[in-house]
Each structure stands twice: as structure tokens, then as C-alpha cells.
Amino acid sequence: MPLLLISKGVFAADDVPAIAAASSIKFALDEVAQQFKADTGRKVRITYGSSGNFVAQIKHGAPFELFLSADERYTQQLSQAGKAQGNGVIYAVGKLALAAPKNSPLVLDGDLNGLKQLIKNQQLKRFAIANPDHAPYGERAKEVLQNLGLWDTIQTQLIFGENVSQAAQFTLSGSTQGGLVALSLASAARFKARAHYVVMPQSLYSPLNQRMVLTLKAGQTASEFYRYIQTDKAQQTFAEYGFGKVVN
To answer: Pfam families from the xrefs (predicted)?
Structure first.
């Protein structure tokens, strides 16, 4: 999609929309928002958190004008509830990574053999994932652990982050020996300086099609930002943070 050319100063000065976004896209979306401001002169105000929690907030009247989910199932819930403008579009495809602090005894591999070995040797103390009850990356981490036969045996060592960003913080801080987190966070420079990671095979979990929708409260700037995220320039930024190619 070609880059939109938007004239600066066209919108009302007080049109700074509240945006709800999955925490997995923080580094990428912050950069896209800066590009949007440079190209259009317009600003957005972004709140990051878990997709499931945002759905509940928007249903109860939260003033968000655009919702970028980590899993399209959550935007579909808003559409079905009549709280969104149509079905929206997929803006990114998420990926999982296994990460560990550089001083961790956990050996990283896509089959989690290193994790299995730590469990077998009773050396695993804490392992982080996002809460699978309302965070899509937590749901997919649970799928990986189930598919590799580890879910039941790792229960007492699991530490749940409220969202995948918090799970990544637990992993980065050294309070755990590792975690399953978003590749987009694990591959960021500030994370790589303190931790290692490997990309998990996508065959181990359901696709993370990250969809966005405009809410019924959306104004002009939110609508322009929604279109801007779909441009080649913004999509290249998402790709640089490890997101997969979008096919709508």
C-alpha cells in the first residue's frame, strides 16, 4: 500500500485519540506513532495491555477510538457486540520466542529440550508466560507447553505476567530462568543486551493474526492512524520487529 500523504494541520488541535494496543507491539507501534507524527503532525495516545482486558473495557464504555489486538478473536468479540466499525484488518502476524537471561542455566532450543532437562533435574525454579486467561501470547505459550507435554509438569514453576510485556520483564530481570514471550519484545535491542532468545516453531501454536478495529468513538485522527498502520512504511517497521507478513 502506498504511503498516505496527509497534510499537516488539517485536524482539530485537540484530536489526540486514545488507542488501546496489545503490549506485544509496544516497541514497533511506538516507532510507527513517531513516524505518523513526523509525517502528519498528528499525535495519538497509546495505552498498552492485554487484549482480553481491553475488550471488557471497551464494552463498558472506555474512550478508546482504535483497538489493536494480539489475536483477532478479541476484535471479533467487539464486532459481534456492535462496539466496532466492521471487522477491521490484520496489521501483523505475531511470533513466539523462548528467552532466558544470559546467566540462566536454561539451554534454548525450539523443542524445549533444555527446559525439559531442567525440569527433569529439578533445577527449574521459575518460568514466565503471559496469563493465558486473557493474553493471546499466554494462550499460545500454553499451547506450546501442552503440545510438548510440559504443561502439567511445569505448573508449580510458572509465573504469569498480566500481559506479555510483563512476562518479558520477568524474563529479562532474572527473576525467572526463562520464558515464552513475544518475538517482537525479545528481539528488541534493550532485551537482547541482557537475554538470549530463539524463535519457536509456528507449528507448535495457533496463528497469532493480530487484527485492529476502529471503535464507534473513532474520530478523524484515529481513522487516519488506522490507515497509516497499513502503509508500506509502517508495515516495514513491524517486519523489523519480527512480525510476519500480513495477508488480508
So the answer is: SBP_bac_11
